[in-house]
Amino acid sequence: MDLKLLFMSTLFGIICCSSAQQGNGNECIKANALSCGECIQVGAKCGWCTDTEFLKQGEPTSARCDELESLMKRGCDAARIENPHGSQRILKNKAVTNRKKGAEKLRPEDITQIQPQKLSLNLRSGEPQNIKLRFKRAEDYPIDLYYLMDLSYSMKDDLENVKNLGTSLMKEMSKITSDFRIGFGSFVEKTVMPYISTTPAKLLNPCTGDQNCTSPFSYKNVLKLTSNGHQFNSLVGQQQISGNLDSPEGGFDAIMQVAVCGEHIGWRNVTRLLVFSTDAGFHFAGDGKLGGIVLPNDGRCHLENNMYTMSHYYDYPSIAHLVQKLSENNIQTIFAVTEEFQPVYKELKNLIPKSAVGTLSANSSNVINLIVDAYNSLSSEVILENSKLPEGVTITYQSHCKNGVVNEGESGRKCSNISIGDEVSFNINITAQGCPKQGKPESIKIKPLGFTEEVEILLNFICECDCHKQGIKNSDMCHNGNGTFECGACRCNKGRVGRQCECRKDEVSTEDLDKNCRKDNGTDICSNNGECVCGTCECKKRDNPEERYSGKFCECDNFNCDRSNNKLCGGTGTGSSFLFRLRIICKQCIITIYISLPFCVQCRAFGTGEKKDTCERDCSYFNLIKVKDRDKLPQPVQAFPLMHCKERDANDCWFYYTYAVNNTEKEVHVVETLECPAGPDIIPIVAGVVTGIVLIGLALLLIWKLLMIIHDRREFAKFEKEKMNAKWDTGENPIYKSAVTTVINPKYEGK
């Protein structure tokens, strides 16, 4: 290939002005980060080049932030790129308990079912940290069960069967655990509700006939949790039925107190079961208004002498409030209800995690089997939940369950069909976006629902680069100490701007500084492609990060060139490589003998342009071949070089062509039709249409004005005629009424 051909292959590859940067479409560029700390908070792919000589003319400080591969392509050494990564550290890692029934008895706090128990994470924005949790259902795990029973009159038969529940349930639960405790509580209804009673006598004995019933009450803690089944039988045997007149009961008040009054109930840090037994529905938040109670339930313990004392003061709790308190206190609920109310409580179960519904027989004779079945159902499923996440932090779960079952999404939080002694695991990804709360450490907790054990995770956020620690405050490199020199760039003090913090914010737009941003003393600042900051052009960023402006006056770009096979500059290599090798910028680089090619193509193909008068003399050195459209232009698959080009004529019309040298033959293929924004013939037509519309509008306006004048004159004439025909005297208005009223006192005798 001769020298002429080499130059042609090179120069036409960059004729449309290639930038020295070939940025990738990424979030790093879009962020406009002005410091290394801001850059690494954008995403895990972003790095910051600390090389002080890295930026080229026209590039802002934010150009230091880019994807790692792009930074290295642009000339930043890998050792000069700040790209910190997150990490994790396990702080407490007690192994899960391998315990069998009959072995040495352990205290509840010595039994471990989830591992590890405490971790510390360092989170880099956009980079997930993966932790693995193990869960093993321990054998012979202690159980606390509290039986909460509706003692309204319809439950009379049920009470008789429950009186022997203690010893019978103790015997049955001994098959599951050697450490079992049971308690008992009862409820009826708020005593202030208008439908409960109407007379003091009714309050004393709300039952009808000769039935002996106790006064209605909201909730009573009859027996604190105990391992003495005989004590349970004895105290429950002393209970009496009460009554009220409406079907829904006040059970939600009782559930709330059982959940929050841990000391009164005697809950331990073990499996906590609440059996709720009733044959009726329930009141919830808002129903208290029927009795004049408007204050919402406060979710606190109000037991005095084992009686709920604030039922007359606070409304029933809402379902959401109950869910919150039951979850906080690790209580699993078993609803033992009659067949009639199964649909209602099954809907309630769907709203309360780790709850179950069993069908209670008419006289509660099946209550033991119901409790055992419900417990087995609840304990065979583990569901992880987490506390409230800090702003910008997300968490995802993946569960690895029995038989190789893997679940993701919301199902990734749980595993089912777990038997005693089975082990499952969870992969948990925790990701931060940005730097929440200025980087202050946070903590979250993850726990299996219904269990008292939890995993504590400390979150630390990587908000600054390591090079930030070596920053030099008030550095001379930042214009007389107007900023901190860190990570290869100046971080300006408040009120200062510019690459070296050389300007005050209130002087960045002065006329003297703007002069330095005008090419050839023109009127356009930074070629209308950038902003003049402290007398230096900082080029605009395009919506597409692959497209960039560059140059001292932002006069160059890398997006106006044709691309072949998705390659810039006709597929002959990156324009930037030729740009640096030949030290040329934009169209100034075109060798003089070839600068006439676009004009020659224009005159030979369309008979226009600067060369149209001398076309035959100056433009006969190549063969011209016309094609119908751009798809018909040759593609760069030949053995000889081929360049794609486009030019715009004086009428803003584009024409497209290729230039190739095949041995000694020079060929130009050109699209035979111009691409114009609008043909010149359409302009007079559009102008005529617009003029016609305006004239029609004016005519309609004049007609409307004329009609209004005629209408007004007719109305005025009609008014004058009616005025002349008035039948009353003009000095007196017949509808006038005097404002004075005279009243004579009949008792007044004139004295």
UniProtKB/TrEMBL annotation:
SUPFAM superfamilies: Integrin beta tail domain, Integrin domains, Plexin repeat, vWA-like. Its main location: membrane. One of its GO terms (biological process) is cell-cell adhesion. Residues 35-465 form the Integrin beta subunit VWA domain. InterPro entries: EGF_integrin_1, EGF_integrin_2, Integrin_beta_N, Integrin_bsu, Integrin_bsu_cyt_dom, Integrin_bsu_tail, Integrin_bsu_tail_dom_sf, Integrin_bsu_VWA. Pfam families: EGF_integrin, I-EGF_1, Integrin_b_cyt, Integrin_B_tail, Integrin_beta, PSI_integrin. It comes from the Eukaryota. It is found in: Cell membrane; Cell projection, Invadopodium membrane; Cell projection, Lamellipodium; Cell projection, Ruffle membrane. It is a single-pass type I membrane protein. Residues 600-681 form the Integrin beta subunit tail domain. Disulfide bonds join C28-C465, C36-C46, C39-C76, C49-C65, C207-C213, C261-C301, C401-C415, C435-C645, C463-C467, C478-C490, C487-C526, C492-C501, C503-C517, C532-C537, C534-C569, C539-C554, C556-C561, C615-C676. GO terms for molecular function: C-X3-C chemokine binding; collagen binding involved in cell-matrix adhesion; fibronectin binding; integrin binding; laminin binding; metal ion binding; protein kinase binding. Coiled coil: none annotated. Gene3D superfamilies: 4.10.1240.30, Cytochrome c1, transmembrane anchor, C-terminal (1.20.5.100), Laminin (2.10.25.10), ligand-binding face of the semaphorins, domain 2 (3.30.1680.10), ntegrin, alpha v. Chain A, domain 3 (2.60.40.1510), von Willebrand factor, type A domain (3.40.50.410). Keywords: Calcium, Cell adhesion, Cell junction, Cell membrane, Cell projection, Disulfide bond, EGF-like domain, Glycoprotein, Integrin, Magnesium, Membrane, Metal-binding, Myogenesis, Phosphoprotein, Receptor, Repeat, Signal, Transmembrane, Transmembrane helix. Residues 1-20 form the signal peptide. Residues 27-77 form the PSI domain. The chain crosses the membrane at residues 682-704. Residues 705-751 form the Integrin beta subunit cytoplasmic domain. GO terms for cellular component: cell surface; focal adhesion; integrin complex; lamellipodium; melanosome; ruffle membrane; synapse. Belongs to the integrin beta chain family. This is Integrin beta. It comes from Cyprinus carpio.
